[in-house]
What does this fold into?
Amino acid sequence: MVDRQTARHAKRLRPQEAPISADELTLKHVQAAAERLDGVAHRTPLITSATLDAECGATIMLKPESFQRSGSFKFRGAYNRLSQLTEAERTAGVVAYSSGNHGAAVALAARLLGIPAVIVVPATGSALKLAAIAGYGAQLRPYDPASERREEVAAEIAAERSMTIIRPFDDYAVMAGQGTVGLELAGQAGPLDFVLAPVGGGGLIAGVATAVKELQPGAAVIGVEPEDAGDTSESLRAGQRVSIGEPATIADGLRASQPGELTFPINARLLDDVVTVPEPAIIEAMRFCFTRLKIVIEPSGAVTLAALRAGLVPVAGRVGVVLSGGNVDPADFAALLAS
Amino acid sequence: MVDRQTARHAKRLRPQEAPISADELTLKHVQAAAERLDGVAHRTPLITSATLDAECGATIMLKPESFQRSGSFKFRGAYNRLSQLTEAERTAGVVAYSSGNHGAAVALAARLLGIPAVIVVPATGSALKLAAIAGYGAQLRPYDPASERREEVAAEIAAERSMTIIRPFDDYAVMAGQGTVGLELAGQAGPLDFVLAPVGGGGLIAGVATAVKELQPGAAVIGVEPEDAGDTSESLRAGQRVSIGEPATIADGLRASQPGELTFPINARLLDDVVTVPEPAIIEAMRFCFTRLKIVIEPSGAVTLAALRAGLVPVAGRVGVVLSGGNVDPADFAALLAS
It folds into this structure.
């Protein structure tokens, strides 16, 4: 396991990328993020299902961040980060690399705050997702995944235009924003025995665990990854960040090949477990959301429900479950369910 | 237009089918239904969308009855009706004819109240919908639409087993239950300028209009039908109930070929207008719900949003919009969106 020393070490190695607001991520930072997001982000509801409770033998409370602005929890972190920029930084603008939810979230947060934004996107990306980003008024900078690295393209733009890079997860202000999902959940659900959240780079669950473990120390916080993108569970077993091959999971938001430098130490300290789910279970969870709950959940958002319904987490009592987003093209959705 | 005399006349013609609880449908009956449904039916939320408001130039508040138990508003009417049966009627049980939402709603309400239920369903019906009805524990009685009339099959079963027929709309207790949608909407949304609801047999909008027009007399109540199933708008123009050909609209819950005997006089008195929408607008509304709102709405449930987005209702101010249900097979949904 990795302790706080490692976290400090990781930060010392990259001073130019230092987070803007904190040396550490605590409940206080999550609460401050919640104040910034008040009246801006949606307070997503909790959804319950008698069928699901009966299936799982527990009281399941789903928190659908699909209903969040921009269609995923990512808006919380992006807005919390952008709203803390200095005047000079706001004027120069921001750059992010993402074909998906982080890109849309940064684009929307930037528009709301009047900040110019460039989003570096794969030229091969989903037309629907790219249209959403452009629709929020951000400038798209396509790159060729075969010949360019998106981090480098973003770094060049940042250097040329003095723009601030907004990382998708390895940033304490982003994590604090994502943590407001856990803060809300703990408040809405009452006492919890378990909290499940998806794990990609680890920013969402780091924030959620920070809030939940301080507010409800008795709640076990469990991460869920696709089997094919089990970098965090492997890293936890190894006691250090390990890199896996390029994941090909349908859960496109969770295709991290290694945990974040800043997120991993937090998750190593706070998480009770990280489990992995097979692809068919993810599809079945999406189908359950559609046919029983009447909500649209993208593959990455459905991994928690998939783990639950496949019996991969021995839950009991009161269980909070984060469904992290709902951005999926209807045609892709249909193809997955027909597969 | 048809006045109260006609309503009384219609009722006088069919004394054996008289409603159980009221000579008239008033706010009081809807409020009594709300008390019966309290803690049993879900109080569905209101959903808003900045995109939709900008598109329509009004404040749109959507009430998604897709989140209601059994997946549509029909549960409200069915439960209100069944909960008022006498002990003898409960013991003998109920029979309903429906391949869809009314069947599922009666089946669920019957299960909750411990009442035996037979649902007369087309042998050619959707496997998913029939499975849902059977899943609630009702007995299925398939009929052959080519050679049998479902009303007659139900009447035979009712006579043989002394069962009570639960009509889908032409029943004041059913209408009073559906009216709780309007009662909730009026309470949740505050002052409203417009209320839109789908029109099939007319039970939902009769209940909704009854509640809304007493609570907020200034609100215009507008019905929406598919172009292909415009029996109520034609009947209103004619000043009497007229019958149209067998509708083939994708909105399978709205395929009424003529308005109800009991619903029509109420709707003729209370509705400000009924508009019709073309099929492609319904599909586009379903797509908007999926991609922007992240909710699953069936064709019948989407007609109101379709009318709004197609500019068929000149709304302004504060607008309440009933999305009546979300029971649609994922494969059918995909086929519609791809069409």
User: Anything to note?
Assistant: The domain at 27-72+172-338 of chain A is CATH 3.40.50.1100 (Rossmann fold).
